[in-house]
Amino acid sequence: MAETRDHATDVSNGSLIEWVFPMAFTFVAAWMVWHFPAYTLTFFPWEAGSQLDQTSALFRRRDVSELPYLFGFVDIIDLLCLIALPILFFFGVKTVRRAGMEFPDWRPIDKMAVFIGRVTMMLVVLLLSVMLYEVFVRYVLEAPTLWANELSLWLAGYVFLGAGLYAMQQRSHIRIFLLYDVCPRWLQRVFDSVSTLLIVIFAFALVYGGYGEALDKMWRWETFGTAFDPPIPATIKPTVLVIVSLVAVQAVLNLISDWNAEPVKHTAADDIDEEELARLRAQVGDEGVGDLDVTRGSIQGNQKKDEG
Q1: How many CA atoms lie within 13 A of 202 on its CB side?
Q2: By the 8 A CB rule, do 200 and 154 touch?
Q3: Do residues 159 and 127 touch, judged by C-beta distance below 8 A?
Q4: Is the pLDDT of residue 190 over 80?
Q5: Is 231:58 a contact under the CB 8 Å cutoff?
Q6: Per-residue pLDDT for 127 more than 90?
Q7: Which pLDDT belongs to residue 238?
Q8: Tens digit of pLDDT for each residue in 229-285?
Q9: In terms of Cα–Cα distance, which of 136, 121, 130, 129 is closest to 149?
């Protein structure tokens, strides 16, 4: 094979660099999403059509930087973010490492999906922070926000989409193996090819049928219509098409990568994390009688010792 795979030796050690790039990418992308009309109005003003004045007025009201424009509607922060985003993505993909519980065999090209998975994990942390903040100010300070509910919904949409791509790369999506496992390998390849073809057809149909509406919502920057009024329709709908396309591409990559793989028999033991079990055994002892042993037999034995 011309392209090599990353194996278990290239395992994450939890270094700071593995957190910095996904986190920085998340914040830069968040700024660009909120200020996305600055780019469309500057570089594609004709796409807004009759909505040009309305979109530009909406952007001016929602511009959080209030800095003077360098050209068009782009200020210095918008320009720096536009430059920084591909750089952060490149180094983020280069530095991503496989965690211990992740799928062991993946090619360098799979790192893009894994990095998007890391960004999705950052969004989960951000989503949780927003929810905890809202609970605190609502029930402790009795001063609920106008933006937490819609922002949580917005973030949850991105988490759902990013997690779908990551699940496809990890082969952790729902699959029924009852018939698959009893078939010979050549027939398993047929099943894999058919399922991949169906995914590609679905992605093509979805993009073909939905890109017009999605682009229209993006160009005119359609908002949610609430007090906070975030641009959820303008951002989520195009992202759905992008992620579904990436899922289809990842499904093809999985088919190529697994074509010569040995047949695997799936059992309930597949859901067991051996590394986590090893850590637990180290804590409770090989015989299960360590200080942290909370099994029924250990508790009963300790009670008898106390009674004696």
Answers
A1: 14
A2: no
A3: yes
A4: yes
A5: no
A6: yes
A7: 95
A8: 899 999 999 999 999 999 999 999 999 988 887 777 766 556 666 666 777 777 776
A9: 130
In the chain, the percentage of residues whose pLDDT exceeds 90 is: 50
Q: Return all residues near 38 (Cβ < 8 A) that are at least 6 apart.
A: 59, 63, 72, 73, 74, 75, 78
The per-residue pLDDT for 10 is 62
Q: In sequence order, what are the beta bridge partners of 11?
A: 98
Q: Which residues does 167 contact at the CB level (< 8 Å), separation at least 6?
A: 173
Nearest to 12 by CA among 88, 106, 89: 106
CA distance 26 to 92: 11
- Residue 228 CB neighbours (<10 A): 16
What pLDDT does residue 269 have?
59
Contacts (Cβ under 8 Å, ≥6 apart) of 150: 224, 226, 228, 229, 230, 232
Q: How far apart are CA 191 and CA 115, in angstroms?
A: 29
CA distance 235 to 215: 10
